[in-house]
Amino acid sequence: MTELDALAPSPDGVWAHENVVVRHLPGLEFDAARTGSTVQVCHGLTSAEIGERLVPIVTAQARHVGLSQREFELVLVGIVRTTVADPVDAWATYYRNSLDELLSGTADFAPVHERAEKLVVGSVLDMGSCFGFFPLRLAMKGHSVTATDLSAGTMRLLATVAPHLGITLDTMVCDAADVPVADGSVDTVTALHLLEHVDAETGSRIVKEALRIARTRVVVAVPFETETTACHGHIRTFDQAALVELGRSTGSGFETSEHHGGWLVLDKASAPQFA
């Protein structure tokens, strides 16, 4: 597997990486097909149509064609890159549209970000930021934010695009279970839809690391699923009982709740409690 450079030059209207080829053909309906090991995608999307709204569309195709997580990611990148010719303009368009959709509530993930924003206090370190929409949202609202992710390419993309959006934030490439910052470095640590991507042992290490870094609060959100969504890289499922067990294992005060998935909030100043 080669590292993905989402900003690398490519011919107008065509983008290819590994076994995925994406072509932009104006007026064409979105279509994906697998021929042998190659995934071919054709679409006629406009610049106004690339954003978070793509996720359910690509997810539906992923289930139809049988896309792996890697192929899902490559298809999404290819759609963005073939819709707008200039790489930075393409991603700035994607980010602007996505933030608009998330802030207006039209994106599927909007309720998660809205709830998380209400729970954070002070400065924030976000674990597993991916494209970094949530850190950008917080930075827009005046929070001091550090976005972190294991993917160097994703963090490089976020650091490149953020200035074009007029937003200032820090980025860091690291494993969420081993973040190179001092104890109590920020007020709040967030891990939104991260733990379903790792096994239980790694997830416990991530929560322990979050508690080490946070001065005040740790906010964890997970999807409640009966089966994993493989194309999104999910390898385990959560329910309310699993979140309560995770909260108890920390020895910290915690609350669990349900709102478009499950929530675990750990407050370091609180006495241990079970909810």
**How many E-type strands?**
11
User: How many distinct helices?
Assistant: 8
List low-pLDDT spans.
Answer: 271-275
Amount of helix: 25-40%
Arrangement of strands in the largest sheet? 7-6-5-8-9-11-10
Mean pLDDT: 95
| Large-scale geometry | globular
Tell me the major beta sheet. Answer: 7 strands, mixed
What percent of residues are in strands?
Answer: 15-25%
Q: What structural category characterises the helix and strand content?
A: alpha/beta
Distance between the termini: 43 Å
Radius of gyration: 19 Å
Order of helices and strands: EEEEHHHHEHEHEEHEHEE
Per-chain topology:
Blueprint: E1 14-17, E2 20-24, E3 31-35, E4 38-43, H1 54-65, H2 69-83, H3 87-104, H4 110-119, E5 124-127, H5 133-140, E6 145-149, H6 152-161, E7 170-173, E8 186-192, H7 200-213, E9 214-222, H8 240-250, E10 253-258, E11 262-267
Parallel strand pairs: 2-4, 5-6, 5-8, 6-7, 8-9
Antiparallel strand pairs: 1-2, 3-4, 9-11, 10-11
Helix pairs in contact: 1-2, 2-3, 3-4
